Amino acid sequence: MLFPGALLLAGAALISGRLYDRFGIRMLLQGGFFFITVIALLLTVTISFHTSYILLVVAYALLLLGIGFMLTPITAYAMMSVPHDIIRHASPMTITLRMLSSSMGGALLVTIMTATSSVSSSGSMLEGIRASFGILTFISGIGFVFSLYLSEHSKLDDAAL
């Protein structure tokens, strides 16, 4: 179930670097956040006990595709804003923060799912899953709005490399 998403994430990471060089950060972040918001909203509305396995695999893969189009450009954008003398410290710190925040985000969504399912009148885990996807939709929507106000760094010219 997870393998197609991992393949799309890896492919998107490769492609997004070239797209970042060509179009800049704003287009990729807006597209990625929009894509994640739409897929999370779709899952919030359509997920049920009868949701097909294929739909879940495709939705998960598309969710990771949106994430893949954002990870590489965000890292490159962050590294361009760091002074060159401390970049050797900033790169591992960026990787650590990415891993820590993804773990904490997953734990937060599972906590919301568990708390919502235990509080709901039916006691159904499905209500918790819908609540988690609803929160994910909201957070990615906020990310999309913030990406509208993102400024582009001046691009490096080939002579500087």
Per-chain topology:
Blueprint: H1 3-23, H2 25-46, H3 53-80, H4 87-119, H5 125-147
Number of helices: 5
Molecular shape: globular
What percentage of the residues does DSSP assign to strands (E)?
under 5%
- Main sheet, how many strands, which sense, barrel? none
Query: What is the name of the CATH topology?
Result: Growth Hormone, Chain: A
- What separation lies between the terminal Cα atoms? 41 Å
Mean pLDDT over the full residue set: 88
Low-confidence stretches: 156-161
Name its key features.
161 residues, mainly alpha, Growth Hormone, Chain: A, 79% helix, globular
How is this structure best described in words?
It is a single chain. The protein has 5 helices and no strands. With 161 residues, it is mainly α. It has a single domain (3-152), classed as Growth Hormone, Chain: A (Up-down Bundle), CATH 1.20.1250. The model is unreliable at 156-161 (pLDDT under 50).
Short recap of the structure:
The protein is an all-alpha fold.
